[in-house]
Structures are given as structure tokens and as C-alpha cells.
């Protein structure tokens, strides 16, 4: 038995052994072992072996957790040669971790590649939409589009307020409202012209305009001659100047 303990103790003291967490107790148990001739420096071995046993159990639990994580990240990799083994080695856990890390790195590289492809497609689409021939012209055209969009947004906001429309009204409603307003204004202008010329007939309006065109040029020439002759510059001064000549 002492030979077995000596072998275990040599294993524990080898450079490859993990550091001892448990230390020999200095209480009644050690005194009792010394009194019975068992104090040979092996009293810490049961605690150390118990600790190692707990670690081996924890190693199995860790392996089980890593397997669950591997199935979540690598669902196609269902084969595990260690499932039927009683003992689990650290190397087995390292293989699972390495496989997970390799898959994550692969996904990250693919994601970066897809991102570059997506960005390239977006830039190409922008060039087609806004007629940009080179990459150097993308940024200036973006600024131009942004400026125009801001101007249009401000114009639409002002039109909504002037026309007393709801801010959520689409542009088609704004255009229709402006069109109706223009029709009303044109109708009022036509009525005012008809009232001014004293006629409701479009042909009469045309005749009066033709009469005005025939009469106004000679009348304008006469007025200009009077202004020059009387040496005045204002039409309102013509009548007083003629009266002064009497």
C-alpha cells in the first residue's frame, strides 16, 4: 500500500502534475495518523485524488456543454467519436473548440466578402439611377441629390402649409390642389376681363382688342409729340400746359 502511495506521491510531485489545491491539514487527523505510524507524508493524497475525481467529472460536464454548443453552431457535424468513451481527454475538448473557432472564422470571412459584394452592387445601382460614369463622381452626385431632396422637402412642406393640407398628404394631392387653384384663378381672370371689356362673347373680346391695337399706336404717337412740343414729361401736365397757351 505504501508503495502505491509512494507512486502516487511521485506522480503528484512530477513537473507534469497540476499544482496542488489541497494542502495537508494540521488538525487532529494528522496527529492521529502520526500516532498510528501513518504520517509518511501521504496524508494529502486522498484530498488531492478526490479533487482530481471531481475535475474528471467536471471535464465530462464541460464536454457535454461543448457538444451542445457545437450542435448549435455546427448542426451538420453530428459525429462524435468520444460519445461512447468513459474517459474524456482535454484533447477531445480542444478538438471541439477548434472546430467551432474555425467555423466562426469561416463565417466571418464569408460575411465580409458578402458585405463587399453588397456594397459594390449598391454603388453600381446608384451609378445607373443617377447617371454617374465613374466612382469619383458618386460622392458629388450624392451631395447634389441630398441638396435637391432637401429643397423639394422644404417646398412640399411650404405647399402643405399654404394649401392647408395635412402634412401626410402625398404629392399627388398637392398637385391636384394646385391645379384646382389655378383653374379657379384662370376662371376669375377671364370673368374680370369680360367685365372690363363689357362683353361676354369671346369674339367681341377679340374685336375690341383689335380696335385697341389700331387706336393705341397713333394715340401714343400724338401724346409723345405733345410732350415734346410742350416740353413736359408727364401726361398729367399736358392739359394745364395747353390751357396756359390760351
TrEMBL record:
Note whether Amino-acid biosynthesis occurs among the keywords. Answer: no
Q: Which GO terms describe its molecular function?
A: gamma-tubulin binding
Show the InterPro entries listed in the entry: ARM-type_fold, CEP70, TPR_rpt
Q: Which UniProt keywords apply?
A: Coiled coil, Cytoplasm, Cytoskeleton, TPR repeat
What superkingdom heads the lineage? Eukaryota
Do the record's keywords include rRNA processing?
A: no
Question: Where is this gene product found?
Answer: Cytoplasm, Cytoskeleton, Microtubule organizing center, Centrosome
What is one Gene Ontology biological process annotated in the Swiss-Prot or TrEMBL record? cilium assembly
Chain positions of TPR repeats: 136-169
State the GO CC annotations.
Answer: centrosome
Q: What does this protein do?
A: Plays a role in the organization of both preexisting and nascent microtubules in interphase cells. During mitosis, required for the organization and orientation of the mitotic spindle.
Task: Share what the entry says about its subunit structure, partners included.
Answer: Directly interacts with tubulin-gamma; this interaction determines centrosomal localization.
Q: What is this protein called?
A: Centrosomal protein of 70 kDa
| Organism expressing this protein natively | Promerops cafer (Cape sugarbird)
Q: What is the lineage of its organism?
A: Eukaryota, Metazoa, Chordata, Craniata, Vertebrata
Its gene?
Cep70_0
Amino acid at each position: 500500500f505504501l508503495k502505491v502511495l509512494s507512486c502516487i506521491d511521485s506522480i503528484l510531485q512530477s513537473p507534469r502534475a497540476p499544482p496542488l489545491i489541497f494542502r495537508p491539514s494540521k488538525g487532529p487527523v494528522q496527529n492521529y495518523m502520526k500516532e498510528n505510524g501513518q504520517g509518511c507524508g501521504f496524508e494529502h493524497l486522498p484530498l488531492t485524488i478526490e479533487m482530481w475525481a471531481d475535475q474528471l467529472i467536471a471535464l465530462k460536464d464541460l464536454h457535454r456543454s461543448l457538444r451542445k454548443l457545437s450542435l448549435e453552431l455546427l448542426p451538420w457535424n453530428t459525429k462524435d467519436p468520444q460519445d461512447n468513451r468513459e474517459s474524456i481527454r482535454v484533447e477531445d475538448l480542444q478538438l471541439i473548440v477548434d472546430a467551432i473557432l474555425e467555423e466562426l472564422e469561416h463565417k466571418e470571412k464569408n460575411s465580409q466578402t458578402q458585405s463587399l459584394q453588397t456594397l459594390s452592387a449598391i454603388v453600381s445601382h446608384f451609378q445607373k439611377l443617377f447617371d454617374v460614369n465613374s466612382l469619383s463622381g458618386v460622392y458629388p452626385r450624392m451631395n447634389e441629390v441630398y441638396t435637391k431632396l432637401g429643397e423639394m422637402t422644404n417646398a412640399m412642406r411650404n405647399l402643405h402649409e399654404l394649401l392647408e393640407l395635412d402634412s401626410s398628404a402625398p404629392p399627388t394631392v398637392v398637385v391636384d390642389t394646385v391645379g384646382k387653384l389655378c383653374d379657379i384663378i384662370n376662371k376669375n381672370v377671364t370673368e374680370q376681363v369680360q367685365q372690363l371689356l363689357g362683353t361676354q362673347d369671346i369674339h367681341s373680346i377679340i374685336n375690341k382688342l383689335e380696335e385697341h391695337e389700331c387706336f393705341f399706336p397713333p394715340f401714343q404717337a400724338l401724346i409723345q409729340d405733345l410732350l415734346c412740343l410742350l416740353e413736359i414729361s408727364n401726361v398729367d401736365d399736358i392739359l394745364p400746359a395747353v390751357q396756359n397757351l390760351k
